[in-house]
Description:
- With 196 residues, this protein is mostly helical.
- It has a single domain (2-192), classed as Dehydroquinate synthase-like, alpha domain.
- 74% of the residues lie in helices and 0% in strands.
- It is built from nine helices and no strands.
- Bound molecules: zinc ion (ZN).
Amino acid sequence: PHVTADTGMDVLTHAAEAAVAKGASPFSDALAERAFSTAFQSLPDASTGDRGAKARMLQASCMAGMAFNAAGLGVCHAMAHALGGRFHLPHGRLNALLLPQVIGFNAQDPRAAEGYGRLAKACGLAGNPRALAAALTRLRTRLKIAPRLPVSAGELREALPGLTQAALADGCLPANPRTVQAGDIQALLLEIGGGA
Ligand SMILES: [Zn+2]
């Protein structure tokens, strides 16, 4: 179940980043929105072994891959790559921890806020970024994913310069809808840190 949860949260992150990425188009938006709503609805049942839900997750995963292949990803994946390389934690779990914070950060861009709102609406939620971030946090809790990075505050602080440098150099970062500075990455990482 935890592998399904982690990888399923990665699917949601692929769709959420593609929906607001710089390379997004009506074609990638259609794939991202359908992938997101399908994964959002199917992941809880998939994580407890329901085969129909798992089949829908497979479709959502492929659609999300097609969406980000066209549109790009963003700062969530840039930070997840840096953290995964440093602390050897599962990629999808890192995205699950980061995504609600990243939605808050990117939603200051009006077009990104609109994109997140469309995803929320497609899931039957209020059509705004805050509702989307809150729903992802609830889903994460339901999937028993701990809300903080399992790394001590001191360890994270020590790793911060290297993590920031790696995230800034990551190939996913240029597609992010907002320009990201070193201070933004540090603030986002510190928000999820200190869970050990
Ligand atoms: Zn990913």
